[in-house]
Design a protein that fits this description.
It is built from eight helices and five strands. The protein is of the alpha/beta class and about 160 residues long. Strands 1-2-5-3-4 form a five-stranded mixed β-sheet, with helices on both faces. The termini are far apart. InterPro entries: Leucine_aapep/pepB, Peptidase_M17_C.
Length: about 160
């Protein structure tokens, strides 16, 4: 996937944010402020709340100080969403977004009449679709601008005007 001409990665991992938000928002980690802005705007448009969580060095050290982290695919701390994001920060080259959706994706709660209790809600699928649509449009516009060549007037026209 590309964001404004650069590769990026959108990832859904699991669990953790449900305890923090009670299902009121999905967690979002990213190493790029532009990607965060796109996800946040998409969520506002679709009605899904995104909550940006930190990529502090505290969590990064729990990945880098563990000699077997790449073998186990996990760090050594308790804050699993933050450590998952620190894992991505350490091992993914390029820009990325990590959306922790378990709190909003698996449980339909708070009385939404169109969702059966304790079933998949589909959230934030619309936010992801809107995010990807925005990224695709930005790529198409960037490619169109890159391929557009400025029209130059023939030299004879330029000499006549001087």
């Amino acid at each position: 996937m590309y964001v404004l001409g650069k590769e990026c990665l959108v990832i859904f991992i699991k669990y953790g944010i449900l305890l923090a938000t009670g299902g009121g928002a999905f967690g979002c980690f990213t190493n790029n402020d532009n990607l965060w802005s796109i996800v946040q705007q998409a969520g506002a448009h679709t009605g899904d709340r995104a909550w940006r969580l930190p990529l502090w060095n505290y969590y990064h050290r729990q990945i880098t100080d563990d000699p077997a982290v790449d073998l186990r695919n996990q760090g050594s701390g308790k804050a699993t969403p933050c450590i998952g994001a620190a894992f991505l920060r350490n091992f993914v080259c390029g820009e990325w977004v990590h959306m922790d959706i378990t709190g909003v994706g698996k449980v339909s709660h708070a009385g939404a009449p169109y969702l059966a209790p304790r079933r998949m809600s589909g959230r934030p699928a619309r936010t992801l679709a809107r995010t990807l649509e925005h990224i695709a449009d930005a790529c198409a516009n960037a490619n169109a601008n890159a391929n557009a060549t400025p029209k130059r007037k023939p030299e004879s026209d330029q000499k006549d005007r001087q």
